[in-house]
Amino acid sequence: MKETMNITQALKEIKLTGKKIESDISKTVFVTTKKAEATKIQSLTIAEYKAHIASVVQAVDANIARRRAIKSAIAQSNAVTTVVVTGTEYTVAEAIELKTSLKFQQQFLDTLVYQLKVANQLADRDNADAETKAYNAVLANIAAVNGDKSSVAEAKRAVVTNSAGAADTYAAVYARFATEVLSGVNVDAKILSLQEELDNFQRNVDVALSVCNSNTVIEINY
User: Fold this and answer.
1) Is 186 found in the same domain as 123?
2) Predicted pLDDT at 147
3) In terms of domains, do 114 and 59 share one?
4) For position 169, what pLDDT does the model report?
5) pLDDT at position 65, please?
6) Which residues of 168-205 are buried (b: 16+ CB within 10 A; e: fewer)?
7) Which of 24, 106, 175, 208 has the fewest CB atoms within 10 Å, measured from its CB?
8) DSSP 38
């Protein structure tokens, strides 16, 4: 048997045919038992029952063959039909695979964003502690020179003017306790790149595939 339809309709037929197969299999008692004197099964005569089962088996076999043929025709078409997404040409099969793999890119992006956020929070906390230690060191030096206690505000002014080497003391102590965010790549640039790639592809791939599927006609033989 031969049919022609566009890919959009073919995809719908795959779902509908699958439901028919499942319905026929789940609702039909293909094998049963019969008492020697029984003349009916499930309100059907023996002949009617046999004919019904044979008909359902034939329908299931036919629908399985049709569904398989539709999927095969789609796969063959997708392997050679091309579609342009965000300026790049792909076969439909490649575009579908890229769409499927987006979940890994999204997972990668989410992980980078989360880890960068945590690392920045830890660095900010540790650097605040380092700043406190550095100003305390300046205050200790001022106290040693002047013999009195000074405020943090005075320590900050001393650092700005480098009074009595306050700036050098601050820098040395801060450098000792400071924390930096570390990675093997430019994380901010990678996050931006991934986000742009995901946004652009997701925004365009479904539309491109939908248009392509409605315009592509396949022949189904079974």
Assistant:
1) yes
2) 67
3) no
4) 93
5) 97
6) ebbeebbeeebeeeeeeeebeeeeeebeeeeeebeebb
7) 175
8) -
Q: Do 39 and 45 meet the contact criterion of CB atoms below 8 Å apart?
A: yes
Q: Which residue, chain included where needed, has tokens 């049709």? A: 66
Identify the CA nearest to 28 among candidates 58, 67, 68. 58
β-strand pairing of 44-45 with 40-41? antiparallel
Report pLDDT for 161: 85
CA 174 to chain centre: 42
Question: Once rounded to an integer, what is the mean pLDDT over residues 10-20?
Answer: 98
Task: Indicate the SS3 state at residue 85.
Answer: strand
Residue 146 token pair: 């002047």
Cβ pair 78, 96 in contact under 8 A? yes
pLDDT tens digit sequence for 79-90: 999 999 999 999
From the list 172, 147, 149, 171, the residue with the least C-alpha distance to 160 is 171
**pTM > 0.85: yes or no:** no
Pick from 135, 124, 215: nearest CA to 174 = 135
Classify residue 85: in a domain, yes or no: no
| Domain boundaries, position 32 | 2-80
Query: Percentage of the chain with pLDDT > 90?
Result: 84
Residues 116 and 198 in one domain: yes
| Residue 214 to residue 133: CA distance in whole angstroms | 68
